[in-house]
Every structure is written in C-alpha cells, then in structure tokens.
Amino acid sequence: MASRKIEEVEKKPFLPGPVATVISLLIPGLGHILIRQLNRGLLLFASVITIIGLGIWRVQILAHREIGFFNQYLKAFDRKWFFIAFITIALVVLWLWIAMDVYRRAKIKKKGGFSIFAFILLMFFAIGWQISEINIPKAIKELPDAWPPLSRILWPWEAAVTRETEELTAGAEILIGTGDEVPPPVPVEVAGEPYLSSTPNIGQLSFLDENNDIVQGTVIHLVGRGYEPNTRTQLWWSDSIGNEFRPRQAGEYVTVVTDENGAFEFDLIMPYRLIPPSARGRQIHKVQAKQITEVGPLIAADPLKLTIELIIETIFMGMMATFFGIILAIPVSFLAARNIMKGSWLTMAIYFVTRTILNIVRAIEPLIWALIAVVWVGLGPFAGIVALTVHSIAALGKLYSEAIESIDHGPIEALQATGANPLQTIMFAVVPQMIPSFVSFSIYRWDINVRMSTVIGLVGGGGIGFLLVQYIRLLDYKAAGIAVWFIALTVSILDYVSAEIRNKFI
C-alpha cells in the first residue's frame, strides 16, 4: 500500500493542467512533458517542428526568387494555394489540438488518443504529395499519349520474330543548290526494274530560322514505276556522305502505296538535314523508294536472340554473386554474432568493428558498388558480379549473424560441459541449428541478386539491364518489351524454384 502511494506521488504532474495547457500554446509538446507524459510530448514537439521546417522549405522552393518570407509565402500561395492553405490551417488546428490534449489528459488522466497522430500523418501525406509532384489529372490527360509505347512493351512479340526480306529500290539524285548550277542527270529507266524520278532535281533543304522554327525546303514531285502493285513503299533520304534516314511529314514517316500498276506519285518536302563539315564540293543527296517484302519462314529476330543470351548471363551473374557471397559471409557472420564473440574485450571489439563494416557496406546500394566495380574491372558481367558479391556479403553476414544469435544455447552449454573446444562447439552445436535459416536466407538472396542484375546493367554491370536501357534510349519499345517480359518470366520461375528448394530444407 505504501509503495502504491509512493508511485502515485512520483507520477504527480509538475504543473497543474491549465498552466501546462497555456505553456503548450507557446511550445507544443512541452505541456505534455510537464504533466509527465514525456514520450508523447517529445513526439508531438518533433512532429510540429518537422512540419514547420518542411513547410518553410516548400514555400522557399515555390517562391525562391522572392525576397523576404512574407513575400515568398504570398507567391507560394498564388502558385499552390490549396496546399499552402491546407498546411497553414492544419498547423493551427494541430497547435490548438495539442493544447486541448494536454488539458484533457491532465484533468481526467486519459490514455490512448491516437487520433492526433493520425492527423499528423495526414499532414505529412499532404507535404509528401506536394514534394513528389503527384499530378493525377495530368496522368489521366496524357495517358492516350503514353499508350502507344506502353502497348508495344505489353505486347512486343511482333519484334521477336522476323523473316528474310527482298528489297525493290530505286533512287534519284538531288543537288542541294540553286537553279544556276548544273543539276544531276535524270535516272535512266530500265525495263523490268523499279524507277524513280524527281522534278525538280535541284533545291534547298528545310532549315531552322533564328527562332528555331522550321522553314520548309523545296517541294519535289516524285514519280515511281515498276514496283509491286498495291504495296506500301517507304521513302528514304541519303545525304552527301551516305547517311540514310527516313524523312517525316506531319510527324509521320513518309510512306506511299502503289496503285494496281505498281506506280505512284508523291510531293515530298526536302527534309531538314545538317550538312556535316566533312562534306565538300557539290552536295548531291539521294531520295529512294524502297519496297521491303518478307519471304521465307519465321526466324528469331535479333532482339529475341540478344535477350535470351543476356537473360542467361543475368541468371548466372546472380548465381555466381550469391555463391561467392555465401562463402565469404559465413565466416564473417560468426565474427558479427554477439553470443559467439562475447568471451573477452578483444572479441567484442572485433564484433563491433565487423558489425560497423557490414552496416556501412550494406547501406551502399548495389548500383553504387557497380559504378565502382566498372571503374575497377571495366564494363561487363564481372563488374556486376563484384558489386553483387560485396553487397551480398554484408547482407548475408547480418542475416546469418542474427540467426546465430537466436539459436538455442542448451546444446552449446552441454558441449562445453564435456570439454569441447570453441571450434567443436560451433561445428556440432551451432551449425546444425543454423542450416534452415542459412538455406532460407541464401535462396532469398539469390532471388534478390537476379533481380538486381537487371538493374546494375544500367551502369554497365552486364546482364540484360544493359540491353534494356539501350532499347529504351533508342525508343525501340517492342524490343524493350521483350526484355521486360523475359525479366518477369525469369523472376517468376526463380521464385517457384526457390520455394521448392526451401521446402526441401525447411
């Protein structure tokens, strides 16, 4: 009974509730501390300070050119009025709510009360929404523009196979210049072969004016004959040093369809093309009309073959990195296990150094290790294996050490009572208990390494990630889609295989 009275005296608030409430109006959270609710008070104080700091930061970001916080606030309100108004009003409400919370808790000794923290989370969510620049209306509005490349990624299999092709091609030379110069000769028509002529066959390319607006070049009239009837025909342009490209009109590649006689006529605007410094003398370009016809059976296209090759490389990168990581992490894990290393001050010092190194290495992402490895050993899968191995040692070392620390100490004490040395104790009392956890962690790490192999390829670490980023940069979304599908398929298969292996050992 006496101890209970002493406990009640010890829990008595420093100040009465009304005084603590007034103090909370000045410094949020301090009132809770004065009524002996230290953790709640510190958490509320930290939340308010953090929200104020983030709010000031966002105001300065939104109005960084304005001088003075008041002017910055007005400018930020003009740009993002809803966000600024919500955070301002919510902060005032939270400030008053904290004071009311102090008064109620001091008066009726109320416990619980998590609604105020839910309100704080809502404020953090609003700040996070603004920092992340989430724009749902824009995403919905621009979805039609994103759908064409997305559809190619979702269904890329047209690019997975191809056929051998036959090509019907004819061309006409175009002189870049004025009418005072001698034009190139008109092509000679040969019976049974495709023919293309241009009128005129001299003119000016399109160019950019001082405002970077396109100024259209000369319009040339193309006449083609001798092609396959009713067939799409591509127009190509070749500059004076032989570089070929497909011209565009109205944002689309120029394509014509021949009539029933295999002929066509088309007015083409001479395209924009920078003349390279290496081109000297008369600038003779060439316009070509090509009909490409697929023949023969279906064969695997280059994107499919490259994807299969590099997905195999990716799997083995993950496997090799996991193997080396396991081999090197096992001895490290014993050095990082407190129950193994607590024998003396020297072993405890080794324990703390090992844990610190593991934490530092694990904190650095494999992508960063891949950048370092690329500088060290060069581009390719070896750099990826080095990066994944380093990170695997740190990750597995931590997991293995925690598994060792959670083992049953009964077998260890029994062996030590029989006079077993430390090595025998580890081999016969520690290792048998570790095997299930070790197998589970190792398989999980293999799965992580295979998935990470697809990412470190972005920085030259080998694997399918390198191929994927090249396809995306070239805007070849169908080829990129093949790589994405194979990555998803590989991860799914490995997940199933790892689950089966885990069931065998655990």
In brief:
This protein is α+β, with helices and mostly antiparallel strands and 506 residues long.
Low-pLDDT stretches are 1-10
Mean pLDDT: 85
What do we call the CATH homologous superfamily of the largest domain? MetI-like
In CATH, the topology of the largest domain is named MetI-like fold
User: What structural class do helix, strand and pairing data support?
Assistant: alpha+beta
Beta percentage is 5-15%
Percent of residues in helices comes to 55-70%
In CATH terms, what is the architecture of the largest domain? Orthogonal Bundle
Care to describe what's here?
With 506 residues, this protein is α+β, with helices and mostly antiparallel strands. It folds into 3 domains: 2-134, no CATH class; 161-299, Sandwich (Immunoglobulin-like); 302-505, MetI-like (MetI-like fold, Orthogonal Bundle), CATH 1.10.3720. The chain is built from 18 helices and 13 strands. The strands form 4 sheets. Strands 1, 3, 7, 8, 11 and 13 form a 6-stranded mixed beta sheet that branches. Strands 2-6-12 form a 3-stranded antiparallel beta sheet, with no helix packed on it. A hairpin with a 5-residue loop joins strand 4 (207-208) and strand 5 (214-215). It is flat. The model is unreliable at 1-10 (pLDDT under 50).
